[in-house]
Amino acid sequence: MLDVLVIGGGISGGSAAIYTAQGGLKTGVIDSGKSQIKQVTKIFNYPGIKEISGVELLENIKDQVIAAGTEWNEGIVETVKKKDHGFSVILTDGNEFDTKHLIIATNLQTSLLESLGFELAVNEKVPSGKIKKVLGIEPDGTTNQPNLYITSLLAGLSSQSVIAAGHGAALGISIVTKETGKTYMWHDK
Ligand SMILES: Cc1cc2nc3c(=O)[nH]c(=O)nc-3n(C[C@H](O)[C@H](O)[C@H](O)COP(=O)(O)OP(=O)(O)OC[C@H]3O[C@@H](n4cnc5c(N)ncnc54)[C@H](O)[C@@H]3O)c2cc1C
């Protein structure tokens, strides 16, 4: 049984996993390898990094996720089932993971959210008017369903990688704080 499982190992999910694993929680990621950032040849607006390709940024994040102690799994999540003390997550290949806290960081993919009963609306921060968000999400990604969290675009934020990373980090900190009962802060010297 994991403490935290992240569905989606893109920018926001990866960032959340770095923080929950570094905060001492047994964390897993399941990722289907389709992060939007892979489409970006050069990123110029990630503060602190003058220029980087999307693929390199994503690889760096994955390296940090694994270095923090997270179990990284490639695969596609097909079903999420609520259980008494958490969630059971089932992949298309039949593999199953049990977790106490579940983070949905799937960006454009909304099918899991619909099956969990969340209400969707247009994310008005994206000009096309075609992108969805979930209604009623707290600023840190907490939902109205216990131990279930949503990041980034799906939480109504803008489509920017630094915002996705910051949102994942804020959520990771909230979950560690909730789980340990101590305000979590990660400061290196
Ligand atoms: C064309 C384009 C250009 C962009 N240019 C910039 C830019 O210059 N600067 C900038 O800051 N941002 C840019 N962005 C936005 C940036 O890509 C996003 O802000 C960022 O990728 C969002 O991170 P995320 O974690 O929310 O989603 P993603 O990084 O897309 O990650 C979502 C992950 O979830 C996984 N997933 C989805 N469903 C499942 C499932 N059922 N099971 C398992 N895994 C699943 C996907 O495979 C993916 O890896 C651009 C986006 C696009 C499309």
UniProtKB/TrEMBL annotation:
InterPro entries attached to this UniProt entry: FAD/NAD-bd_sf, Ferredoxin-NADP_redctase_2
Q: Which cofactor does it need?
A: FAD
Which keywords does the record carry?
A: Flavoprotein, Oxidoreductase
Q: Which SUPFAM superfamilies does this one have?
A: FAD/NAD(P)-binding domain (SSF51905)
Q: In the record, what terms sit under GO molecular function?
A: oxidoreductase activity
User: What is the protein named?
Assistant: Pyridine nucleotide-disulfide oxidoreductase
Natural source organism: Mesobacillus subterraneus
